[in-house]
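Shipment paperwork, digital attachment
Item: protein structure file
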Amino acid sequence: MEKELLHKYFSGETTPVEEKEIIDWAESSPENYQMYLKERKFWDAVTVNNIEMPADAAKNRKKINIWKYAAVAASIALLFSLFHSLNDSGKPEEKWQSVWAPPGQRARIVLDDSTVVWLNSQSTLAYPSSFGSGVRTVKLNGEGYFEVKKDEKKAFIVQTSQYDISVLGTSFNVFSYENKAAFEISLLKGSVRVSHKGRELSDVTLFPNEKAIEEDGRLVKGVIDNFNHFRWREGLICFDEEPFGDMMEKFSLYFDIHIKIENPTLMEYRPTGKFRHSDGIDHALKVLQRDLRFTYNRDHERNEIVIK
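Attachment content:
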């Protein structure tokens, strides 16, 4: 794979066909994936530090600020970091790495056991570079869609700030941002067991097409009523009669901007529709203005939108 094409991909300038070519190549062998990670780390180091890239790597590309790039890039963008857990003696025990999906973007990761994980905007996944002989444990802060490779001898555990999710092989979606009170898990295939940390009696088991939502500190089971909500993996934000206030909270989270609603009549509306991450929040608000009567002002310095 040409490095120039990889750098083009990292900067969000590739076509859908080129993106698929790169993803297929990266997943075709461990060697290719390691090369992908190496180039990804190099690119992130360059952009985070806002330094000039070598001419042979970027053909005199101008300096890039990582935050500006993350806000406008249309394709997947990942930020990798490596860290070690320590045992009681203070010695390195296991190498871990983390992946973060910037605002307005999403990320796809293939783990050591061939499990596939999608991360939604502003989500982080921490995982070991390789799973040992015990359980397969990862840590999630945000929203993730998991396609877990089945292994009856090794449970797969997703740890969130309040709950642990244990599976053997299944597909499910988790919404659990540390700075948000909401927790929701939806199961598409297989079965999962959700355990509240410190409260074993509150454990819940889900089966296909079931979901569990935290209400007043406990998990309440229900049935998945709209599978479009999981299309965020395609870069879509889908709403089905969503309360306007809840919709703005999701926009605020996905696009990393504070939204203040000063028009109380808007709270009565429950819009339905689909928006692309890559179109940005201004496009989404202008589409909503076709059906709803409101105006808005955007303060870039304060990173705030006021809806009137």
